[in-house]
Amino acid sequence: MSKIEEIAAAVSAGKSKVIGGLVLEALDAGLDPLEILNVGMIGAMGVVGERFKSGEIFVPEMLIAARAMKAGVEVLKPKLSGAAKVGLGTCIIGTVAGDMHDIGKNLVSMMIESAGFTLIDLGVDVKNEAFLAKLEATPEAKLVALSCLLTTTMPAMRSAVAAMRGAGVKAKIIVGGAPVTQAFAAEIGADGYAPDAASAATAAKGMVA
Ligand code: B1M
Q1: Under CATH, to which class is 89-208 assigned?
Q2: 117 CA to middle of ligand 1, Å?
Q3: What is the pTM of this model?
Q4: How far is residue 20's CA from residue 16's CA, in Å, rounded to a whole number?
Q5: Which of 31, 57, 60, 181 is paired with 133 by a 20 to 30 Å CA distance?
Q6: Which SS3 state, helix, strand or coil, does residue 124 take?
Q7: CA 184, CA 175: separation in Å to the nearest integer?
């Protein structure tokens, strides 16, 4: 079994205690941190999702796999995030109301922060009122980043963008997450969309330039 396969197996089996060591071994062996993340960890979460969909595993197993992924990302973090050279302004990020998924959002946070933004992370299940209150308290914010992982919370994303537009928020809005598409982003009036964390950082930089 290759090191990447070992990492993927540990993530999908939810082995939080061993994942850090495996990631370190993979880094020591010269493997690319992005390959470890994309193929080893994100790939494994895809498999976990498929197993859940087919009824092979249930929510607790998804949860322990998520914990293992988070433990692995912690070890990988220093290798993925570079030191920001410029201050691009403040970005407020959150997963929309009703949605508890945060692994993708956390990766986006990490990449946006290392691109040079000051990050305010409101966490998961963020209600429109919480976004608006933080925007009011942070009028200098240049960007709002919204994540959603469920088709059932896509309406909450639409509602969040509408609430911000209704309140006259000046900050640009970028959206993303597994069910979100460029077409949906345009339809709900977001300023930007990105399919993954690395392109979210690139898009974010372009949006405030
Ligand atoms: Co959930 N879940 N889950 N889950 N979960 C999915 C999303 C699902 C696809 C699984 C499946 O059925 N195949 C499915 C959604 C189906 C759908 O909507 N069509 C699903 C379901 C149904 C549910 C529940 C409803 C299950 C239940 O209770 N019956 C429930 C909902 C809870 C809620 O939110 N209200 C639920 C719960 C959970 C857990 C809590 C157990 C756990 C989350 C733990 C956590 O996040 N702390 C969990 C997990 C782990 C998953 C899967 C297996 C993995 C998600 C993940 O972290 N992926 C997922 C299946 C899958 O993704 N294939 C699944 C890795 C992560 C890096 O990817 O988040 O997509 P992702 O982020 C990507 C991109 O999307 C993008 O960048 C990242 C990559 O670089 N991105 C952005 C994300 N946000 C962005 C923002 C941007 C730009 C890009 O700009 C701002």
Answers
A1: alpha beta
A2: 25
A3: 0.96
A4: 8
A5: 181
A6: coil
A7: 9
